Amino acid sequence: MFSTLPLRRYRLPALLLLTSALNLAACNNAKVPTLPLAPESASGFRTDLKTQHAEKYMAAAANPLAAEAGREMLRRGGSAIDAAIAMQAVLTLVEPQSSGIGGGALIVLWDGKAVRTYDGRETAPAGATEKLFLQANGQPMGFNQAQIGGRSVGTPGVLRALELAHQKHGRLPWAQLFEPAIQLAEQGFAISPRLHQLIAADSSMPRSAEMMAYFRNADGSPKAVGTNLKNPPLAAVFKRIAREGADALYKGPIAEEIAARVQGHANPGSLSVSDLAHYQAKERAPLCTDYKRWQVCGMPPPSSGGIAVAQILGTLQALEARDKRLALAPLKPVKTTAPAGIEPDPLAVHLISEAERLAYADRAQYLADADFVPVPVKGLVDPAYLASRAALIGERSMGTAKPGIPPGIQVAYAPDRSPLRISTSQVVAVDDAGGAVSMTTTIESAFGSHIMVQGFMLNNEMTDFSFIPEENGQKVANRVEPGKRPRSSMAPTLIFDRQSGEFLATVGSPGGSQIIEYVAKSAIGLLDWNLDAQAAINLPNFGSRNGPTELERGQFSPMLIQALKDKGHSVSEIDMTSGTQAIVRVKDAQGKASLAGGADPRREGQALGD
């Protein structure tokens, strides 16, 4: 079924090999692939990034080593999904805190003819109950108590989803796609500034002997930036997956160890070998909606991201249709020391934030796994419904929005008041045939459940369910149920020209529940404000999750902040660590098409192409 050709040696480009001058006698003085010592997401904003241009293909990921693996597959004639698989394998190694084969992913794919989506979201084990996160007194657990250990581990789905997509859209043999990750795991890679910072900040790491041995020194201190980190167990896992396909993870000794570690933890879960063996990735119909001159396609439930982004854009379109004075004002230069150097008009920030309040209110009320609860998908994105929601937006902030009553409601549910968290990673790719992928991938919180099995981290996705199964006698739609997929905020997105049907852009971001804000901002930057890929990503983050109006710390002028307060906004300046990747199809004056890509300066990503 899968190629078992010998693994060819993967050659990393000189650019990446020369970013560090580490001398490693143990590796015959071979230079170790490293990252530029750029500021990490929470401590800086890279100002050296420019839009990358390519004639044939391009890949972008949250780590340059992953982006290079994606480009290498495209150079070999691979498809966009081939590139995504190679990038995910490398991210499992070099960005273990964010994603990996122990987690899940949502994929939106354009094959040149149709948009397809693949759901690799984790599922609740068969033994899980809706009281999973309730204490003996009936109160919900604290998040850390729920996260660390086997209780939070859902059945991983990313590898099954990638296998399914590869069977339908892959060009290269499956085994080739793991070559970069295998070589990096065996040869080692240099710990990046961001990974080092997250290792140092993780107060729960001492509870895992495997993590301490791998990520920290004998005295408990975090391994330094630039330390050569090898992962032979993960290399062996990837070799098995390359030979046997996804079954290597879901059946046999690896599956048995996963189940044993989850069930045997001091905070045990119920994930079993049967749960792993019976996991199925699903192809779902894409959620495509019109926005002005464009069509925007994303994931349906269990993702809330696709619906929320569509609602935000649809609400803004309805506002403009109602009153041309409410069209999104253009960006204007401001005198600011903020790295981006530009910011939206205060009215635009007001309107977008209010549209987001409405979308997040509906998200909390209605969004969950549609295989288990009736989600009124069509009603939530119905233009007439969104026009009625837009009518609620006035000159002053509404504060906290209430959910609407969209067409098609079948059951009344209580709102989900679960805490909002930040996590995840993002890859995008466009191949030489014009195929495109946006994949958002996650193990949920940083380092997931903190259970490390054969070199990779297991997810804590069960904490994406509501901790409280009901409120005031009404069930919460996103409550725990066996086999159910937890609601996700992931919003992998593809954009097309409505008139010609031509592919325009692939975009997505990590960031937990803030993903919706980040993707909406980037889409508006590309479409309404005519920014290039890098500028749209660089644009300061802002929005509202139906609470305070959040502004990226240090990125907005005092004038804009005061203007929002004058409109009744409760403003909160916070770190908003997006990790957006985008690739846009552009045309020159002669109509010749090429690709332009960007990566988020708040993390360590890179876009690469030829």
Automatic annotation (TrEMBL):
GO terms for molecular function: glutathione hydrolase activity; leukotriene C4 gamma-glutamyl transferase activity. L-glutamate binds at R121, D464, S488, S489, G512. The active site is at T424 (nucleophile). The keyword Lipid metabolism does not apply. It comes from the Bacteria. GO terms for biological process: glutathione biosynthetic process; glutathione catabolic process. PANTHER family: GLUTATHIONE HYDROLASE, GLUTATHIONE HYDROLASE PROENZYME. This is Glutathione hydrolase proenzyme. The lineage of its organism: Bacteria, Pseudomonadati, Pseudomonadota, Gammaproteobacteria, Pseudomonadales. The gene is ggt_1.
